[in-house]
Input
Amino acid sequence: MNRIAVIGAGLAGCECSWILAQVYNLPVTLFEMKSIKPTPAQVSPHLFAELVCSNSLKSTSYLNPAGVLKSEMKKLGSLILDSAYKFAVPAGETLAVDREVFSSHITERIKNHPLIVVRNEVVENLDLLLQEGFDAIIVATGPLTDHALSLSLMEFTQSQSLYFYDAIAPILDGDSVDMTIAFRANRSTRTRDYDKKNPQKTDLLGLPPPIDGDEEGDYLNLPLNKEEYFSFVEKLKAGDKIPHHNFEEPRYFNGCQPIEVLAEKGDRTLSFGPMKPKGLLNPLTGKMPYAVVQLRKESLGDNAWNMVGFQTRLSWTAQREILKTLPGLSQVEFFRMGSMHRNTYLVSPSVLSQDFSLKVNPKLYLAGQVMGVEGYLESAAMGLFLGHVIGCKFAQNRELSIPPADTSLGALAHYCLFAEAKHFSPMNIHWGLFSELSETDWIHYSNGSVQAKPRKPDKSLKRELLACRASELF
Output
């Protein structure tokens, strides 16, 4: 019987372990260190698949590649996705979860599986695991890989350790928000409008519908006028920040930059980013505010709200002082302050073979964020797929090929394997990873309703056809 080790009980590690044991009946030893040596970003030492930065698993819309990725993960038997829908909280078209019960459920499923043995150990040396006789070792340690293990990976791959910084948004007590100022509403987006006009298409991906929320809207919105907005931007730029070490160059993932870094790029940057007011009308004025702060509910059972897009490296004192100047937050209480942590990843195109094993040793595999994908959903997807790759290899003696590049899962896999190594950096799923629709694609995937590729194609129609193509290819 083949023996398989998985290092890390995060999203990728749990997904991979579950598929190997549940689908392929392979015994798995799952190593998890945080009950012994927690990382700075983690708060629940005994929970697997912990969501640290946010409780969001991105869009469920078929016009969004994250929605397409979910449909592919569902077809592959994803434990993470199944659990997310079980414990979803209202968030419009976004799949957001009650993170504690979500992680508790996954932890219980993993620990109670008869073919999964959990070892609460810190893995520092891959050579020692290889000496234990494991036939495959999956490194799914995520962006917060232990330093000693990072050094061991560097020795195997003969590569430099790379990193970027990731920041966490504050969580507020909803009861302390001034509801005479805040208003409930979902952002009216082009995606939503298109879905309403095309109701027959909304089940294109075969996903459950978003959880029904409050009729007034799932988000709390704090409106700012022009003067309040620019005053807030100045406070952000002047606020006290947590400094980097002298030997560290600040590198931020583009999709998760701290709000103060965005503010430093230009005074209006935030109003076109996380504070954009588009699609929101203040019921007190009947007009669109100059800017808004959106709060998304953290769980079904309490009144915790996440400040959407407000990742920050401001000191905790500065956070309290500056955020309380926002309309509706003068008396706010914080359940968790924002923070920042360092994420580690390897340049996968340089070190991985096409089955995601290391070129220098076919028994060692990478999965999740340590291999250069960014985001909860993307990390889980790569762990899920790797579980099938290794399961097919050991249980069925066959090779599972990478999905086509114009599927969501295939786009991520191809990026990790074939992107230009020189400029490689962590990547989340987006339409830019897909190839353009050809003339033939426009006709085929529109069922002939479009006779030629338009010079200026409708964005929503184009994305629908991209989703149709991905579904057929997968």
User: Anything to note?
Assistant: The longest strand covers residues 162-168. The first helix runs from residue 11 to 23. Residues 338 and 411 are 32 Å apart (CA to CA). The mean pLDDT is 87.
